[in-house]
Design a protein that fits this description.
alpha/beta, Rossmann fold, seven-stranded parallel beta sheet, globular, binds nicotinamide-adenine-dinucleotide
Amino acid sequence: MTESSGGRVANKIAIVTGAAAGIGRAIARRLAEEGASLVLVDIDAAGLAETKRLIAAGSQPAMTLTADVTEEEAVKALFALVLSAHGHIDILVNNVGGGTSGHVWEAKVEDWDFIMRLNLRSAFLCTRAAAAHMRERRAGRIVNLSSGAREGTPWTAYYIGNAAYAAAKAAIHGFTRHAALELAEYGVAVNAVAPGPIETERTAPGFRQIEHLEYGPIRATPLRRIGTPEDIANAVLYLASDEANYITGTTLAVAGGR
Ligand SMILES: NC(=O)c1ccc[n+]([C@@H]2O[C@H](COP(=O)([O-])OP(=O)(O)OC[C@H]3O[C@@H](n4cnc5c(N)ncnc54)[C@H](O)[C@@H]3O)[C@@H](O)[C@H]2O)c1
């Protein structure tokens, strides 16, 4: 859907972090299809260019910004740039995240710190910058990416470990809830989406290796399939749209019933 025909987020300015691949790319494409003007942020410039290319013809032109969203100064500069280009921000999707750390009895401190930084510090820095602006405007939508891992992931726990990631994604839930309470009186909604196993270029080979095993992701998912990036993009679109006007502080599981 294009600007001329409206769309569920028509004419909204939307920043998506981690938009060069996987779920972030799908979110950016879906928001653009529904009429938003996208600001695509990532450390991967080539991937950003590809997302920009994939954004449907007829959508509003997307802006790409190469930045590391775990760095305070980079995030400040990025928000200043977006505000000078667009004048305001309607939607922020904190999608950057991930990382592996091994079983808890052997995990490295550097991996723990990296995962906290990638998942939590990035969401904090971008939310802080967006919230200061949205609070003044008394409008805005922030959507964070948590994970089914916030309650522990059977296949990851059994085969490779990654308690740091589970801890970071549980923290995203708490951060979302608290930021929503702080911002509610200013008309700014903060929600999260918690994906189950989602097939992307990065995750597909790993899922294929373990899907037939006892604790494999398909067996552990009641809907008996791995999710798609579009499943997550649709949920983010809903929370970013006016259809979710009375929803804040919630973490929406999009995890096939898990
Ligand atoms: N794929 C899944 O199964 C799954 C499940 C649950 C939750 N999630 C969450 O969904 C989100 C997206 O997952 P994905 O699988 O698409 O990830 P991905 O690794 O495929 O993509 C992440 C993107 O973020 C970018 N990035 C990494 N570090 C960055 C930084 N410091 N600054 C800016 N950009 C950076 C990468 O270049 C990449 O384009 C993450 O928060 C992830 O934890 C994914």
